[in-house]
Amino acid sequence: MLLLKVFEIIGTIAFAISGALVGMQKKLDLFGVTFLGIITAVGGGIFRDIILGNTPPTAFVKPNYCFISIITSISIFYLYPRIARKHKKYTNKNVDQLEVINKYTNMTKDQVLRLINKQNQMITLKRIILISDAIGLATFTAVGSNLAFYNVKSNLFLVVCMGLVTGVGGGILRDTFVQDTPLIFRKEIYAVASIIGGISFYVCKVNKLNYMIAFYLCFTLTFVSRMIAMKLNLNLPKFNSDKYKIRL
């Protein structure tokens, strides 16, 4: 299916961008950045194929996705710094207008400007990482749900789980390698967005709707749910040991 290939390529590029930018944020070298880009892009698919018994995994049988990840990661490594330098920068006039100089009484205007511009670049970097990660999550949720459905059509749990594993597996590996808590465990609504998308895909296919409708609906619901959660900072409840004075 052409649509499936398109979704796989889009997801691969999006996750490779996400992984590469995280590597750059952690100040890794070119190999580290490229490795994170690859593992983020194909990690979820490898998990899915192993669980479904499709061995060796597609990422090794058809290395096209690894090559796409490598090209994307290297491109980001060299292009992103140039793009970041063109990002809107604050000037002395902006500092006076924003009256931020009072917050840094022991700093000169030039020091304040450098600090503000660096903070803005970091905010932009994090935003790009989260958006590209959301695109990858949505596309691979649809891809994983589709492959699971054609393996066991009547199993809703399997379809949803494979969509989830495909969508979040690469991100978990990425964050684990750089010693961060994976996004799925700490950031807004993440896994829930993938689950919503997987359920919508299953419902569409069970009711014999066109596969294009199933793909687009799954992608849209997953992506929109994730973006709304990011925008509104929606989170599942977290346990606060300090609140109850419990030492864990």
Brief overview:
The chain is mainly α. It has helices at 2-25, 30-52, 58-61, 64-85, 92-98, 109-151, 156-177, 183-186, 191-206, 211-232. The protein is globular.
Whole-number tally of structural domains? 1
The major β-sheet equals: none
The count of helical stretches stands at 10
Q: Report the strand count.
A: 0
Q: How do the helices and strands follow one another from N- to C-terminus? A: HHHHHHHHHH
Radius of gyration: 21 Å
SS class: mainly alpha
Low-confidence stretches: none
Q: Helix amount, in percent?
A: over 70%
Amount of beta strand: under 5%
Shape: globular
What is the terminal separation in angstroms? 51 Å
The chain-level mean pLDDT equals 85
Give a verbal description of the structure.
- With 248 residues, the protein is mainly alpha-helical.
- The protein has one domain (2-232).
- It is built from ten helices and no strands.
- It has helices at 2-25, 30-52, 58-61, 64-85, 92-98, 109-151, 156-177, 183-186, 191-206, 211-232.
- The longest helix has 43 residues, at 109-151.
- It is globular, with a radius of gyration of 21 Å.
- The N and C termini lie far apart (51 Å).
- The model has no long low-confidence stretch (mean pLDDT 85).
